Amino acid sequence: MLVNTCHSRATIAAMHNLDPNTITPDLLEDFYQDFNDHYQNCETALIELEQEPQDSARVNALFRSVHTIKGNLLYIGLHQLSPLLQGIEDILEQIRQLRFHYDNSLSDVILLAMDKTRQLVDEALAGDNPLAAASSATDFAQLCQALQRIASTADEQRPAAVNRALRLLSPQDNLALAPEQPGSFLETVARMGVQVCDDIRFIDNLVPALELRSGFWQGKTHRSALLALRINACGNRRVTPEQLLMAVLFHDLGMSFLPLEILHKSGRLNYDERRAMEEHVYNSCHLLSNMHGWDEAITMIIQHHERCDGSGYPEGLRGDQICDGAKILAITDTFDACRYSRAYRSEQKRPLLRAISEVNRLCAIEFDEYWVAAFNQVIKQQFTTGQQMP
Fold it and tell me: Comparing 254 with 68, which gets the higher pLDDT?
């Protein structure tokens, strides 16, 4: 962002009855550069804490970055925004003192609160007063109070406080989705240029029953299919759409036959459990091989857990050894798992920002750069057109 120094100096000065001449262009530029650096440090720490939530050094690093941003807001004259950072600080201080544990829900709150801070700072530096309207000021005050409540409430009341903060930070992530009307999914993919044949209709009719096997799966197949087809369209349709759709509909069918204690296990799988989990790609392929004309889809299914750095399974393939359809499936599966990791137990999806960041974090490591770029194009189109993301 290029800071509009004339407008932002006047706006910041007017917000706090300051002399605009005390807020120099160099000061604004230095502030924004420092703000960006610490904001990125916060994002990095949050991502790393997803993997190591007990890492006190990362919690402390996150706290220091938030504290520095708050101090810089005060120094530059954006005092109105500091209560939001104070709320984040208070939550992190409770975690530092081991009064409660860092988890995914708190991570989402902090991520979205930092994103809200960035939005408000950008508006202020663009020459606007983000809290000028009474409604904006009221919403901001309610959000700051919600963060304070997370830090101060008793353990048994904290989940409700976290959910309230998440709804204020990201109301569009409420999971209350309208039930899909019969036939609407296939009608949608047909409008996207997919030739819907009898085989696709047959498998699609099985999807609702298969998704009842686990609460984690409800709605996943159609969400993933629509996203995969959009990514493929943005990537110049390198993959035959009908084959890609069949691969999405079928790729986890073999997993439906695994014991629920494996499907729902929260800890690390042991050797036998991991082998059983990895076998699902072969089971799915075996079932689809009984239907003729789906060789491309079968290849996508058997490779959809392969990763570009060779860390996947079942064969440890790398880069161009993996077909394009499997590369798309790897992205859509990760995006959906990140977006809905908490949906089985609550009404709240994880933030869209979190899922997008996770896909991009793995770009050129596990995921193919070409298809991550197509994924980002789909996301950009969704925001531009105002369509709801899955």
Answer: 68
Indicate whether 349 pLDDT > 70: no
Q: Could you tell me if 165 and 262 lie in one domain?
A: no
CA dist 66 to 42, 130, 143, 267, Å? Answer: 7, 20, 17, 31
Of 139, 169, 199, the last residue of a domain is 169
Burial readout 2-34 (b: 16 or more C-beta within 10 A, e: otherwise): ebebeebbebbbebeeeeeeebeeeebeebbee
Which residues have a Cβ under 8 Å from the Cβ of 353 and sit 6 or more positions away?
Answer: 111, 112, 115
**φ, ψ for residue 175 (rounded to 5)?**
-85, 5
> Is the same domain home to 155 and 217?
no
Task: Compute the distance between CA of residue 303 and CA of residue 319 in angstroms, rounded to an integer.
Answer: 12
- Token couple for 317: 């393939």
* Residue 176 belongs to some domain of the structure: no
Contact present, 312 and 290 (Cβ < 8 Å):
no
Per-residue tokens: 48 = 């790393």
Which sign does the torsion angle of CA 53, 56, 61, 66 carry?
positive
What's the pTM value of the predicted model, to 2 decimals?
0.72
- Domain end point (choices 169, 202, 221): 169
Report pLDDT digits (tens) over 21-38: 455 677 778 888 888 999
Is the backbone peptide bond immediately before 171 cis, with ω within 30 degrees of 0? no
Report the domain count for the chain: 2
Structure tokens at 117: 């801070």
Any domain includes 177: no
Per residue in 182-195, pLDDT (tens digit) is 568 999 999 999 99
189 located within any domain = yes
Query: Radius of gyration (Cα) for the chain, nearest Å?
Result: 24
Please give the average per-residue pLDDT across 366-383, as a whole number. Answer: 92
Q: What angle do CA 90, 48, 171 make, to 5 degrees?
A: 60
